[in-house]
Amino acid sequence: MACFSPNSAASLQGGASVDLVRNWPYKGRRFALQAGNHNHQMTDTLHPQIDLSTAKPLSRRHPVKAAIADIRSGVGRWWMWSAMSWQDIRQRYRGSVLGPFWLTISMAIMIATLGVLYSTLMKMDIHTYLPFLCLGLLFWTTTSTLITDGCVVFVNSDTIILQSRMPLTVHVMRSLSRNFIIFAHNCLVGLAVIVIFQVHQSLYSLVSLVGIALIYLNGFWVTLLFGMLCARFRDVGQIVSSFTQILFFLTPILWHPTALGMRHWIADFNPAYALIEIARAPLLGVPISQNVWVIALTTTVIGWALAFSFFARYRARIPYWL
Amino acid sequence: MSSITLRDVTIRFPLYQASNRSLKKSLLGIGRAKLSSEGSHVVVDALKNVSFHFSHGERVGLVGSNGAGKTTLLRVLSGVYEPIVGQVEVDGHVNALLNVNLGLNLDATGYENIMLRGLYIGLHPDEIRELTPSIAEFTELGEFLHMPVRTYSAGMVLRLAFAVATATKPDILVMDEWLMAGDAQFIEKARGRIEQFVKQSQLLVLASHITWILAAVCTRILWLDGGRIVMDGPTDEVLKAYATGVVPEPARLRALS
Predict the structure, then answer these.
(1) Which residue ranges make up each domain of chain A?
(2) Looking at CA atoms only, how far is residue A106 from chain B in angstroms?
(3) Given an 8 Å threshold on Cβ–Cβ distance, is B95 in contact with A234?
(4) Are strands B59-63 and B203-207 parallel, antiparallel or unpaired?
(5) Is B134 in the A-facing interface, judged by CB distances under 8 Å?
(6) Residues 6+ apart with CB under 8 A from B170
(7) A284 three-state secondary structure
């Protein structure tokens, strides 16, 4: 077969036969714009032998579908994010014998110190105050690290995001899973306090698992939303960490919500309190008020809707921001 | 059959100045938006109406000065940037080697980095464990693999990265020019591996400034400038034109159309 050369003068003057052009494997479209010279219309601008049946278009998917696909396949790659998060833990505690238990120990020391100090300051019985403080701090610590880690989830993974195509949700799950591993280590302190202070446990205590699940379910949308915002606006991280600090003092962790008296609305409308309370109250044998459930579930639904709509709208833009 | 098709792909980057990067300033700016006539959105077209088809077995080189759009194009091919205008169709699994330091943890050992990098390019931990012996062999790093990567030379890091990235047989390998940092012996070996790669009827896209590498490896060259394809053709033709900086008339006609 004669060779077709698009650069030759003959071709450009319309000398090439239609068959030669049609069998020419390269740059169909670009050439097609010139194919008018040959008075031949190439409707499918590509080489006829090119099989595109298995080709996956990367664009032109509906953004909502693309976002759902991202979340589904991102969560589904559990082997990827779990291995990454373990690697994170291993790297963070390289060279220390105790590993993540360093955090556990520092938490135990903090709880012991604060427990003694604040039970004196607030004139409360240490047997009731310390378990309350311990469990509150345990759940707050994981909540607040979920928020602050969420802010850097995409920014810190920029080299990976800019290098290969993988669901962005993988990075979110990596952050959640890393925090969960640390949380699981810290749970030992909670367990020790429950045993030492003989806090009575019953079947009702299992409701705490629902609370923990809710914390992580909310952690997901927080990570996704704040991760995107921080990728676009680099000062969001600082704003968020200031607000997280304020939130800590506004949330009944160091103090008991009953101490608010008439101003109980401060706790009533606090989503962080609602989430922590559902995890904490069952372990202390305290009933959970209906209001707490309403706030927790509303936060979950609204947060997910907000984060998802942002994600659907801006998912493809995230690499451009990094 | 691996193939890549781009149809009129345009990649537009918003250029954020420091003030656009700040939420506080953006919010404060809402009230004054009407006052400042200058639009805060400065955009740059990193790629403009790029169309081509790379087919099975081709080894394509990308040339062009800095800022010509080579890296952006590689990122489009690896699916990182989804185009605003145009269409990208990729048939086959893409493995991109754009950044030698991808996920490299200096404190982790060579073996741990093999695992990390493998995860980042989408391999299952079991697969990585299975591949580790052959990767270790290719790197020729021996006992160094038990040492933190901090102790490695740049060339050693490169070997490690290249070995992991090419350990599996991705259908399409997309590579930036960092490959050329290795010593002569390694480049020879890397070329051997790339040759082997292409022989298995895969597709390679390589961006580089070093023309002799391109001449040795590639069958087709795309010359980019300012986000457009200036010339697209067989290696020797394009490289000759690129060296002189003069685009042959027919090719220019084509590029302008």
Answers:
(1) 1-55, 63-321
(2) 24
(3) no
(4) parallel
(5) no
(6) B92, B93, B94, B95, B202
(7) helix
Contacts of A11 (CB under 8 A, 6+ apart): A4, A5, B250
pTM of the full structure: 0.79
Element (H, E) at B63: strand B59-63
Find chain A residues with C-beta within 8 A of B121's C-beta. Answer: 164
| Contact status of B115 with chain A (Cβ, < 8 Å) | yes
Of B5, B24, B95, the CB nearest to A235: B24
Per-residue pLDDT of chain A (322 residues; tens, 9 = 90+): 344 554 555 555 555 555 554 444 443 333 333 333 333 333 334 444 444 444 444 445 678 888 888 899 889 888 889 988 988 888 887 767 777 788 888 889 999 999 999 888 888 888 889 999 999 999 999 999 999 999 999 998 888 888 878 889 999 999 999 999 999 999 999 999 999 988 888 899 999 999 999 999 999 999 999 999 999 888 888 999 999 999 999 999 988 888 888 888 888 889 999 999 999 999 998 999 999 999 999 999 999 999 999 999 888 888 888 8
- Please judge whether A58 and B52 are an interchain contact, meaning their C-beta atoms are less than 8 angstroms apart: no
Interface of A with B in 41-60 (CB under 8 A): 45-47, 50-52, 54-60
A249 close to B (CB below 8 A): no
Interface contact A25-B101, CB threshold 8 A:
no
Structure ipTM over 0.85, yes or no: no
Of the candidates B7, B119, B120, which has its C-beta nearest A29's C-beta? Answer: B7
Residues in Cβ contact with A251 at an 8 Å cutoff, skipping those fewer than 6 apart: A140, A267, A270, A272, A273, A276
